[in-house]
């Protein structure tokens, strides 16, 4: 998404990273600064470019928040399983302690010296008393174990409450953010519809850019078998639509295409373009090989896959299918070899 004019690459790498919700809030603030409806004198195509760029940044923040929500759900499920096991352990300890207490109650709880005085067989009594001491020591150990288990259970429940609260915040933020992105994309579509027929046709032709408009990427070798498999998967997605927040197989956003392509090669990439730039080691653009991930803009809000011949495959923006473009279409943030 965003404007894909031929701009000179930038060599700087932006390594800053914030939490999902901080990124989410910053992206939402950026979107809020874009006017809901362009004024008549506004350059409509430039305004659409700005809307798409802002929406792409917001989409990556949405993806990050969604990924975080998934992690929280898994953590919460694991914590709830631990709580259930701990509760079973506590119940078992309480049952054992209750049995011992009942046995002592039924014996009358007589003072040991009196029990020895009135015993018909003192030797037998002393044997029983030694066994009782051992039982009491075991009971004391179980009491200590129960206390420790109760403290651990309280801690697990506090962690579960914290995770649940964070998950709820993340869910609400994602839902709000989704509505914001959809509203901005709808504004962009209305602006496009307002263009004169000739300008809209020119825009549509540019949006439907295909491999045939560029020279063949050439036969540059991928640095590994998995990179070659990822390139093959990305090529198989050529022509599929851009769908924001999607990672295939019928539609993709920019980072979703990279994640899906490498998954076909057996490699699990993170979900967002900001995370994907750190999914391997950085190489200079002059040494880029097929399969390398190219991230764009200082905030790494767009990502594509290098395929050789100075070209990349990427999911550009709504209305434009997965296609080839020149690697220098936007300022480059990093080139990452997975």
Short description:
By secondary structure, this protein is α+β, with helices and mostly antiparallel strands. The protein is 57% helix and 8% strand.
Explain what the structure shows.
With 338 residues, the chain is of the alpha+beta class. The protein has eight helices and six strands. The relative contact order is 0.16. The protein has a six-stranded antiparallel beta sheet with strand order 1-6-2-3-4-5. The protein has helices spanning 20-32, 44-106, 112-117, 122-193, 197-207, 225-236, 254-264, 273-276; strands at 281-282, 293-296, 302-308, 311-314, 323-326, 332-337.
Shape: elongated
Hey, roughly how much beta strand do the residues contain?
5-15%
Helix-strand category: alpha+beta
Query: What is the typical, i.e. mean, pLDDT?
Result: 75
Features:
338 residues, alpha+beta, 8 helices, elongated
Protein topology:
Blueprint: H1 20-32, H2 44-106, H3 112-117, H4 122-193, H5 197-207, H6 225-236, H7 254-264, H8 273-276, E1 281-282, E2 293-296, E3 302-308, E4 311-314, E5 323-326, E6 332-337
Antiparallel strand pairs: 1-6, 2-3, 2-6, 3-4, 4-5
Helix pairs in contact: 1-2, 1-4, 2-4, 6-7
């Amino acid at each position: 998404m965003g404007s894909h004019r031929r701009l000179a690459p930038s060599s700087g790498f932006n390594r800053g990273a914030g939490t999902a919700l901080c990124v989410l809030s910053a992206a939402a603030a950026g979107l809020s600064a874009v006017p809901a409806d362009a004024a008549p004198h506004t350059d409509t195509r430039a305004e659409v470019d700005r809307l798409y760029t802002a929406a792409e940044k917001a989409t990556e923040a949405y993806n990050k928040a969604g990924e975080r929500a998934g992690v929280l759900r898994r953590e919460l499920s694991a914590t709830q399983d631990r709580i259930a096991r701990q509760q079973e352990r506590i119940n078992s300890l309480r049952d054992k302690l209750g049995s011992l207490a009942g046995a002592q109650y039924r014996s009358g709880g007589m003072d040991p010296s009196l029990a020895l005085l009135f015993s018909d067989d003192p030797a037998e009594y002393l044997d029983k008393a030694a066994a009782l001491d051992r039982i009491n020591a075991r009971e004391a150990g179980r009491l200590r174990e129960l206390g420790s288990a109760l403290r651990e259970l309280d801690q697990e429940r506090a962690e579960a409450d914290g995770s649940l609260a964070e998950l709820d915040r993340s869910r609400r933020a994602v839902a709000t953010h989704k509505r914001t992105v959809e509203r901005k994309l709808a504004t962009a579509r209305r602006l496009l519809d307002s263009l004169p027929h000739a300008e809209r046709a020119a825009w549509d032709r540019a949006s439907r850019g295909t491999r045939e408009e560029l020279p063949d990427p050439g036969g540059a070798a991928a640095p590994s078998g998995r990179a070659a498999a990822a390139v093959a998967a990305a090529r198989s997605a050529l022509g599929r639509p851009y769908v924001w927040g999607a990672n295939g197989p019928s539609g993709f956003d920019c980072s979703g295409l990279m994640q899906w392509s490498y998954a076909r090669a057996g490699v699990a990439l993170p979900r967002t373009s900001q995370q994907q730039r750190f999914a391997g080691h950085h190489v200079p653009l002059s040494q880029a090989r097929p399969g390398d991930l190219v991230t764009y803009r200082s905030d790494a809000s767009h990502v594509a896959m290098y395929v050789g011949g100075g070209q990349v495959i990427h999911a550009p923006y709504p209305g434009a299918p997965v296609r080839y473009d020149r690697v220098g279409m936007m300022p480059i943030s990093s080139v990452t070899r997975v």
